[in-house]
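#lab-general

N.A. 3:47 PM
ok so I finally got the sequence cleaned up, no stray characters, all 292 residues accounted for. can someone with queue access submit it? mine expired

B.Y. 3:52 PM
send it over

N.A. 3:53 PM
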Amino acid sequence: MFQSILVQALSGVSSGMVLFLVASGMTLIFGTLRVANFAHGSFYMIAAYLSFTLTRWVGHGTWGFVVSLVVAPLIVALLGLVVERFLLRRIATRAHQYQLILTYALTLILADAVKMIWGRDNFTVPRPGALDGAFDIFGTPFPSYYALLIVVGAVIAVALHLLLTRTRFGKVLRASVADGQMVGALGIDVPRLYTGVFALGAWLAGLGGALAAPVGSISLGIDSSIIIECFAVVIIGGVGSVGGALLGALIIGVTKSVGILFAPKLAIAFIFIALCAVLVLRPQGLLGRSTA
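B.Y. 4:20 PM
back already:
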């Protein structure tokens, strides 16, 4: 029983790492631009569909997987750049309701675009041969691809931490969040900085979508399911906190995965139970800062 729980928990960590990639992009965007981007799940979905197309063009081997992992997130990052530069920037000074309406409208537009390009069929992306096996953990098999997800998620978490705390970009970004007008007065192009952050957030969502493509079915509606979990992660971890996004994603991933063993019908409910508990006990999130 212990082995089953351990492997199931590790499976939850792997799914939590994918969720972290997507949610970290959302929390970066919201923490910097103060935009609750409902279209963030659409970026994830588009990357998954692009991965299917790229692996079909290039091949289903390791090379095709690597190409999809590089190209799909870059295309999504470019899409995010266009969205911020030509749409969100034009309403940046208006009330938040306009941003919510715009990003929600984008989810509908992008969903219809996906439907026009790929149709309504469900697709799958084969795992590369080198990662299609499993290895034993205390006699219980654990998929090699899930181990890759854990490693990639950990690497991205460390890279984001270093980017935000040890580089000039991170220092300028944190300063712009505190006082954007002052940063602009120092000669820094703040709108360009915001565009870069939005593109980075879209790239993270695209990377999550590309990595998740070989795990399950690619279908219309995966944008809605991932965006709900992303909002839960941001609230549990704390708005604007990348470390909080990692903690929140792991909590949701492990809780959902282990919960399936004991109460399969309540697996999804466990996410919202955790969310409600955090809202009641610590409204600013586990690693968020209180505004009081």
